[in-house]
Amino acid sequence: MSGNGQYQGRAGWHAPACLHSSCRPIWRRPGRLRQWVPLTLLFLLAGCAGLHGSLSNRLPEDTPARILTLEAQGFTLAAAEHSDAHTPKTENGRVTIFIEGDGRPWVAGGRRISDNPTPRHTPMLEAFLDTPPPALYLGRPCYFGMGPAEQCSAALWTFSRYSHRIVDAMAEAARRWLASQPPDTGVTLMGHSGGGVLALLIGERLRAVDRVITYAAPVDIRRWSELHGFTPLFDSINPADINTWRSDVSRLLIFGEQDAEVPPDVFTPAADRIPGARLVIVPEADHLPPADLSALEAATQ
């Protein structure tokens, strides 16, 4: 979807379990066995995840951002931060944390699970690089070459991509980084596609968060699987099933009018059920987020 996170230009998306044409899931409702075959395959692949795709080679040479690693829940997460003392900071000191889409859970046209889910395209990294400090680009467990390998079952980037284990690890990593930032500044989580799903879920666990912005987030993952005919993400948290949301968090959910992967008419009903959420549909936009989501948010105030 982020799978939430991979895209092929402004048009031509083909929606798989990661919303990317190169990683369609291989089970398109084949019947009763679809619930058992994925589990069996994931157990077989649990120890076979090759880790590569360093975040460091994604940053421009002249950027003030720096690479760091964050330990959480037994994982080492790749991250990048803007905290250079010579770089102008945001006026109110607000912290922004960016979360990428799902990357490449599947390869070979969906015929096998990827051993490297790291996204090829990183629109949230580009947004992070354009954001004044303090800001954090937060990777997921087992992405960008991180491990440890024995913890990186392929389930973590396929059917468990929004599981409690993933959400808790990312929330803890963000919490540890925030401990080094000035207090009482306010924290925004910003996520694209499946990264938007994670932003919503992490925002419920991380008390410092007071604002969440998503773009093209499939806020009902069960409906998303049904829409595209894919095997359900059976070990993931579905935002549409959450009954109680924090009342002290501002949420802006943005959709592209022409997004074929997360069509607004399909997902805005679930988004509208989130208490206090503001919904924006960007005319003529597709699955690729605008260059500056923060500016879009300000324009909709």
Task: Outline the secondary-structure elements.
Layout (H helix, E strand, L loop, with lengths): L1 E4 L31 H9 L20 E7 L2 E8 L12 E5 L6 E2 L4 E2 L9 H7 L5 E4 L25 H15 L8 E6 L1 H12 L3 E7 L5 H8 L21 E7 L7 H9 L4 E6 L10 H7 L2
Parallel strand pairs: 4-7, 4-8, 8-9, 9-10, 10-11
Antiparallel strand pairs: 2-3, 3-7, 5-6
Structure described in brief:
With 301 residues, the chain is of the alpha/beta class. 22% of the residues lie in helices and 19% in strands. The chain contains seven helices and eleven strands.
Taken in chain order, the helices and strands follow as EHEEEEEHEHEHEHEHEH
Query: Average pLDDT, to the nearest integer?
Result: 81
Task: Label the CATH architecture.
Answer: 3-Layer(aba) Sandwich
Unreliable spans are 2-37, 39-52
Q: Mind describing the biggest β-sheet? A: 8 strands, mixed
The CATH superfamily label reads Alpha/Beta hydrolase fold, catalytic domain
Instruction: Identify the strand order in the major beta sheet.
Output: 2-3-7-4-8-9-10-11
Q: What is the count of DSSP helices, taking H or I runs of 4+ residues?
A: 7
Shape, per Cα inertia axes? globular
Radius of gyration: 18 Å
Number of domains: 1
Please give the CATH class: Alpha Beta
Task: Provide the CATH topology.
Answer: Rossmann fold
